[in-house]
Amino acid sequence: MDLSVEQLHHACRRVIVIVNGKGGVLKTTTAANIAGQAADAGHNVLLMDFDPQANLSEDLGVTQAGTGDQAGAPLFDAFARGKELVPSHPQIRPRLDLVGADKDNTEALITWLTAQMSEPRGELALARVLAPIAPKYDLVVIDLPPVVKSVRRAALAAARYLLIPTQADISSLKGMRLIAEQFAQARHINPDLQLLGILLVLVGESATAIRKDVRNAIAADFGTAEPMFDTVIRHALSPAESARKRGLLAHELETYVPSQAETFQRLRQRAAGAQVERAVSSTAVKVAADWAGVTEEALLRIADREAVERMEP
Ligand SMILES: Nc1ncnc2c1ncn2[C@@H]1O[C@H](COP(=O)(O)OP(=O)(O)OP(=O)(O)O)[C@@H](O)[C@H]1O
Ligand SMILES: [Mg+2]
Fold first, then answer.
1. Under 8 Å CB-to-CB from 273, ≥6 apart: which residues?
2. Is the pTM of this model over 0.85?
3. pLDDT confidence band for 207 (50 / 70 / 90)
4. What are the structural domains, with CATH classification, of the chain?
């Protein structure tokens, strides 16, 4: 059955896309941790990976992610063969389903989507794929590759919410202008698209002055600074490396931080000449709290906006 554009967008009313054309600004880490924490808090969540690098699958512990494991096949089949979308990794955590990526299938999907962009309403391809299954979830979170225009257009044409992780340096802030333009463009076909929030990431210890600059830049590009999340994600390389290496999310890694007694024990073993694997840094606890803060803010914002919509005639 063909759904109208309004019906497609109604079905996708809990879809969040994580966007930034810049590489390495924690898009994937944001998608994984918000989805993981929301699932942990009791929500049913679907995570979707459109990046042939398959970092999202890696972050969730899929071994050999992206290397010919065919994780991207269900997504390719849903787009190019019209099959119903099924998660490649159902219940990868309790209440969390993953639609994964792999190099071959996801590259083929990107080629297919790029060709669709010249078809009438081609950019609604993702909305059509999502409409039958999105209503089964409380939240659908989409992770994009940094530079593929066609996938970004399809994601912005489907989603209700846009979440932008960004660093605070000058070139990142210039990149925000570009996203603001794409956002405005996408609203022609998807008038429901809203900016859920801008998330400042990789923030150093003393960032108050930087935050003010960012607020001003955002106000200039989006007309308001209100969408900035209060929570920021601190720069903490060691926990991030441990998390991706072990395929654990920030709040899962937290449980591997050794107690003081365990730390003393390790020091004694090392002093005695034993090979002791490096422990997970205690900063992991703080990083997990950062992600918990962002997730809570994101869920509250969605609840607030839905409450306002219910009151509108
Ligand atoms: N809090 C943090 N502090 C420092 N580094 C981090 C932090 N969180 C994640 N990282 C690391 O930053 C790198 C980039 O993160 P991520 O893959 O999420 O970015 P991305 O925007 O998805 O990149 P791409 O554009 O390649 O898709 C990864 O190696 C990740 O482990
Ligand atoms: Mg990524």
1. none
2. yes
3. low
4. 5-236 (3.40.50.300)
Residue nearest to atom 14 of ligand 1 (CA): 24
Q: Which region among 18-32, 64-78, 88-102 has the lowest average model confidence (pLDDT)? A: 64-78
For residues 55 and 103, is the Cβ–Cβ distance under 8 A?
Answer: no
Instruction: Work out the angle at residue 146's Cα, subtended by the Cα atoms of residues 145 and 148, and round it to the nearest 5 degrees.
Output: 70
Which tokens sit at 83? 């099959």
Nearest atom within ligand 1 for CA of residue 237: 4
H-type alpha helices, the chain: 5-11, 27-40, 55-59, 73-80, 103-116, 125-130, 149-158, 170-186, 208-222, 237-246, 250-253, 260-271, 283-311
**CA distances (Å), origin 287, targets 10, 170, 272, 284:** 34, 24, 32, 5
What region does 66 belong to: left with phi over 0, alpha with psi -120 to 50, or beta?
A: left
Dihedral sign of CA atoms 128, 39, 20, 253 in order = negative
Least confident interval from 67-76, 123-132, 160-169, 261-270: 261-270
Q: CA 235, CA 295: separation in Å to the nearest integer?
A: 18
Please work out, in degrees rounded to the nearest 5, the angle formed at the alpha carbon of residue 51 by the alpha carbons of 50 and 55.
Answer: 120
- The answer to whether the CB of 146 is under 6 A from ligand 1 is yes
**85-143: pLDDT as tens digits:** 999 999 999 999 999 999 999 999 999 999 999 999 999 999 999 999 999 999 999 99
Reported as a pLDDT band with limits 50, 70 and 90, residue 174 is confident
Q: Residue 26 is which amino acid? A: L
Tokens coding 84 = 């119903």
Determine the residue of 28, 163, 166, 167 to mutate for testing ligand 1's pocket, defined as the one with the most ligand atoms within 8 A of the Cβ atom.
28
- Residue located nearest, by CA, to atom 15 of ligand 1: 26
